[in-house]
Design brief:
This protein is mostly beta strands. The chain has one helix at residues 10-18, and strands spanning 31-33, 36-37, 41-43, 46-48, 51-53, 57-60, 64-66, 71-74, 80-83, 87-89, 94-97, 116-118, 122-125, 129-133, 135-137, 141-144, 162-166, 169-170, 174-177, 180-181, 183-187, 190-191, 195-198, 201-202, 215-217, 220-221, 225-228, 245-246, 250-252. The protein has a ten-stranded parallel sheet, with no helix packed on it. A nine-stranded parallel sheet has the order 3-6-9-12-15-18-22-26-28, with helices on one face. The protein is globular and about 50 Å long. The relative contact order is 0.10.
Length: 257
Amino acid sequence: MKQSRLLFGLSALAALTFGGPDAIAAPPGPTTCSGATLAPGVYKGLNVTGYCKIDGQVVIDGNVKVADGAYLDAAWYGTRLVIDGDVSVGKGATLGLGCSFGYHDCLFTPTWLGAVSVNGNIDAKDALTMYLDFTIVQGNVNWKGGGDATMVDSPGNDNGLVLVIKDNIIGDNLKVDGWAGAWFGVIRNKVFGNVSVEHMAGARLGPGSVPDSTEVANNIITGNLKCEHNSPPARIGDSGGAPNIVLGKKSGECVGL
């Protein structure tokens, strides 16, 4: 059993949050959320078909499906979210889980670890982007394709399309492959499996026209770290980070990281 699986359970967190397992009854089937803020409570699965904001105490007792082009936005300071199942993210969709420094109302105080937890896997195919911060994922994070190179701003601009994976605990493997945008980074995560970063394209340029993307730094990885065919190649970058701690093998661009 992975160490992270011992950290949080659905029943324990639900009892702490809602005053006991019988405090709020879940609806009989998945709830659809589109163009609204999801009310606090317990839900038997969630289908996101438009913009869905979670800024309160929510338990999803089942799977979450983010439809093509939809946006699940659970990256607010007041979010307390447990997903007791898997998260799937469709083509052109956006996933935001856990507060990120300076994003929305999250300020710059790292006090959010465990406020959002996923007891299954996160899988995305050709999705637009993801903001994954201070989140506990018991299973795998698997991101394939996606992004939109046309959303990249001019050189030196900090805006544009980004894919952020920072400060998380991931119980199994992390794999990202084939995303394109302005900036991408895997920073300060604890991963109890393997990490693979391949075919990623980040176009943003930093001061002096130095490529500023594909930052892979300060991670603790119990398995292997593999980085190949990325543009720019994997780097520490200007994150102010340090080399990764890898108990397995480093390969490709990450050998020096």
